[in-house]
Specification:
single chain; alpha/beta; six-stranded mixed beta sheet
Length: 414
Amino acid sequence: MIIRFLIFFLILLIIDFYAYQAIKTVVKNGIVTSIYLVTSISILGYLAYSIYNYDRSVGPSSESLRAAGFFLLFYVPKLVLIVIMFGEDIVRLIVGGYNFIANTFFEGSATQYMPDRRKFVSQVALGLAAIPFTSLVYGMFKGKYNFKVITHTLFFDDLPDAFDGFSLTQISDIHSGSFDDPEKIEYAVDLINEQKTDLIVFTGDIVNTKAEEMDPWIDTFKRIRTPEFGKYSVLGNHDYGEYVSWPSEEAKLNNFNAIKDIHNKIDFNLLLNESAFIEKNGERLALVGVENWGHNFKKAGDLHKASEKISAEDFKILLSHDPSHWEKEVKTHKDHYHLTLSGHTHGFQFGIEIPGIFKWSPVQYVYKQWAGVYEELGQYINVNRGFGFHAYPGRVGIWPEITVIKLKKRSLNT
């Protein structure tokens, strides 16, 4: 553990060294470079203190989120610097090697290395590093509460006639332990209520770890109005208390039971590997809810058990927190789950998205379905980008989402 800790901080020192070289080359002012050094040393000390004092019995807290924010804010831009500066050092090494060989074996044929090049490269590097720095600052102060309502209309051949035009609102990944602005959360709840859909669903991760994180927010989320066909929810991987140390299995179980009880307190019907029927004008659709099933996370979900009361002919909407469940098990299932609603990825809380044109995030290299609607084998999945935030206390380019989905019967003219 100590060795890994030391290696990590050695890497940070190397990154800081390169960044300092760029600052010193561009800014010919001893006061500015001194301020930079003091700031860098202070940040490094703060990170060391935060990591060393992280309490696994408490889990993620506002303090650990703040430390993560500082780490990303000060070291992602420096990584941009180091890539450019290291590349320039490689060029200098090649030119220097060429000069050495030329001077040694071919006198008079060495090229003159341009002394101003280092300053130019440093200026470019600092300019490029300013982009992620500015973005991360915006993400921490504004982006994390930049709620967007995203609407999809999905067409199905076998949608029961009574549900043609049926609408639902999906939220996911509340992560209440990360919130720090009650006014913004009240605004988001108002946005949910303004959609006035027929059904509301929540697809897991109501807390970061502990049930008590939700205590200040119960009344706020209880304000989500219950529409005609109800409010339903499932659990996510964070709802099992897997990421902290517990004094006993009993304490962990008590926390899990308290988390399940939260859903009842905010008037959501929690589906634990079970189903419910939504009935309208003598027809029905099946709402199926599984516990968390993740390819790389807890596999408590049991699709077979959750579907015991439904038939292969029922129109099915599945609530499953982790989209890897759809990829690995659901989409090829013989019973044909028409629509799956997931979350979990948060869209990495970082990326570039131009609606309808371009979408990129590092998380796409881990999850095939990571944000928005996907269709395969005549089935849809929507991956909600998440309501809250976790780890990095902000969002850049991938904003918090409230999804509205309208179901439509496909006609011959559609």
